[in-house]
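Ticket reopened. Same input as before:
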Amino acid sequence: MAKVALEQLNKRYGAVPAVIDVDLAIAENEFVVLVGPSGCGKSTTLRMVAGLEDATSGTIRIGERVVNGLAPKDRDIAMVFQNYALYQHMTIYDNLAFGLRNRRVPEDTIRREVARAAEILGIGDLLARKPRQLSGGQQQRVALGRCIVRHPQVFLFDEPLSNLDAKLRAQMRIELKRLRERVATTSIYVTHDQVEAMTLGDRVVVMRDGRILQQATPLEIYNRPANRFVAGFIGAPAMNFIDVSLARNDGRLAAEAEALRIRVPEEQAAVLERQPAQALTLGVRPEHVLIGDPRPENGTGFDAAIEVTEQLGAELLVGVRVAGTIVIASRIDPWAKLGLHQKIRLSLDPRGLHFFDRESGEALR
Amino acid sequence: MSLRRNGLLARLGEKERFALLLIAPAASVLVLFQIVPIVIGANASFRDWQLYNPKETWIGLAHYRYILSDPVFLTVVLPNTFLLMFASVAISLVLGMALAHLLNWNFRGHTLVQTVILLPQMIAPVIAATSMRWTFNDQFGVVAAFLRAVGYGQISWLAERWPSFLIVLFTDVWIWAPWFALILLAALKSLPREPFEAAQIDATGRWRTFTHVTLPMLRPVIGVCVLIRSIDAFRTFDQVWVLTGGGPARTTEVFSIYAYIETFVNLDFGRGSAAAIVGAVIILIVAWTMYRAVDRLANVSR
Amino acid sequence: MSAPAIVAQGAPARIVGVLAPGGRAALIVLAALAIVLLFLGPIVILVVTSLRPGWAVYYIYRGTAFTLQNYLDVFARPAVVRAFVNSFVLATLATVLSLGITVTSGYMLSRFDGPIPRTWFGTIYLFRTVPYISWVLPLYLVDYYFGVYDTFAGILLPHIAVHICFFSWIMKGFFDGIDPSMEHAAMIDGCTRWGAFRRVALPAAIPAIAALAILSWLYTWNEFLFALILTGHNTALITVTMAQFVTELGTAWNLMSAMAVLAMVPAVLVTVFAQKYVIRGLRI
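Engineering reply: fixed in the latest deploy. New output:
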């Protein structure tokens, strides 16, 4: 198990940059998730660590070694692919043994390792079958098994759950967490699914257009997003954004938009005062949009008409039209009597207000 | 046949009628030019039918007995045909596979090589054979000049059985290895890359990657290609006719030439037809067997 | 060539070689050279031979006398000119007539399932397997009987039959790759099945039909056995006329090769200009 260090990593395809100035240090046994939309460079970064792509510039270290020029087989890594990439014409046992056999590991050691991996993953009775006969979830477990038997320094995951249906994905997430407890290894996990990122990662790295936008623990990313993109990407339902401008009102700073005036809490007001820009975006997560105004003294109340409701069973989602955009409120009692076109009073939890510079998207804290 | 059609037509839905309509002209052409001639040929094979004296008297299986006991047919023609079939397909496959891998590397100029490879497939087999015949001409051919230059002396390629056979085989491979190459190349390009990357990470050497990853994935395509090419190779005529005419002294004769010679040289239409029928039966059995084997091995169906 | 294109290719292209990069490049160049030599060599030799005057043909690699006289001589022979005209007419007629039939045959095989398509599939497959000689021999007599021996009619239909059996697959393969829901949508929109075929499937199939036309035409142009058996003087075709050249002119390779080179022209044109279409049709 080793640390992985990416220093000023760049990848260009001709003139097109795919990965730009990526700096990432991964501690031993840490599980880091690279997350972002398609084309953000996360897979390319992973493949550079694996040695399947060459870096245009920058250093990749696994342990103390600089591995930039090394072939994948010499980097002591194991990888799980989106399409499982099992060897279709070999039995599961042979699939698991293949990498070890190539490295001339003695057969009894192989038998031991395969048995151990099979026991951890619960695929012991599938060893004689061929991949074709297995379900998607079983195949993915075999792919995981291929990694475990090798005892590599780093595990690499390239969107391993994307090919599974939603229910199976949820199950496999739990399996992955259990696996981590039994086989703790430094891991880099790539996904476009922010739920996977939040639930699996010790640290989450949000990427976009080849750059790292923020790297922090899941809770930190969720509660203190560094910019508007990260704020909107992480969390479901997504954060609400309203374009506002600052104004002084009775000596207090307020964020204003059409038919909306939200008083800025003290700590944030201090920061915002220093901002030269007046054009801001207010971000507030749906769970911080409350039906009713229980604390009018916060000054965060407003009226709006309901435009859409979504019944989820466990909660109700309500969308109201505010300042030209739809704001979603969540965690509402599913039995609440709220109907279309109803005019209601709402308020925002002052602990859940985020301000972003409208131009740069940077969070103002 | 028409009775069946009438009864069926009543029960056929609109969809089936459309399907039948789509192939009606094609089916009529085939019926006229498959069933009718073969029936006529079969009929003739049981009769004494010389082209100059078509008595058409029934002689039963006499022709078949003759052919199946003809030493030329049994010890020369059939072995030649099968040998050509197996050797040509095997060598073309191996060479084609190598070519496909080479072209897959996308080196500069690979499009030129791809174009060059297409040419043997596009020209007439008789022209291919003609150019080979000239190239291997034992006095004036380029190969002869080369042999003289290296001091080897003269090889009379077309004067003996096995050198002639070699030339025929060479020509056939020359024409058909590109066919394998182009089809396998397309197949290679369509393979997913993840298994290969997994093999890379698994420290698999190149040859092992080929045998354990590439080949298994290519098995269906290889199976179909081998099947089709084998069937076609059985009935080779053009190249052999131009290169050797079946000679010297009928030693490179293959089945199609045997039937041709019986009919148009010996002018025995009855016996020629019988030979043609025998060959047809043989290849049908071989094709059926191969189809089953390929189907099982490569999961190819329909 | 952009890197993503490299990445998108089949993986064998990415596997690191055993040799040093320089060594591998040298090996590739050598192999490519050998291949070009092997597959282009005999043809080039033929072309060079056709450009040498008669007396220089015996040592074509020596000397520098080149001439176009052979071509003029070959064209001066009415038999040759007639052969070229006949072959062209036959190939064009056969292709034009078989095109529609083959396209519908392939379409039927693709879109339908059940006993009828399966029987048709088996029939075509059977016809492909039975050796030509088995049905062309009796055809010789049939042609004689109907008085169409040595006429275009006599040899046209066998070629059409082969076109159907060999090339239905191209169209089937192509239609298999097109989503049938478009035709279903057309039928719901008021088309008959035939209308859906004609207005939706057919226009999309033009590239495949081009491949089909080229391959059918070339097949008939290059064909030898039917020509040998079913034609005589009236409908002499180039492949047979060329083979007879050898006895007629002794072994005047300069003239023979000139005629062969001329006969190769369509093939060369197709290879250079229509490569993509042909390769698509070569599968199966």
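DSSP finds nine helices and 20 strands in chain A. The mean pLDDT of chain A is 90. Please confirm and we'll close it.
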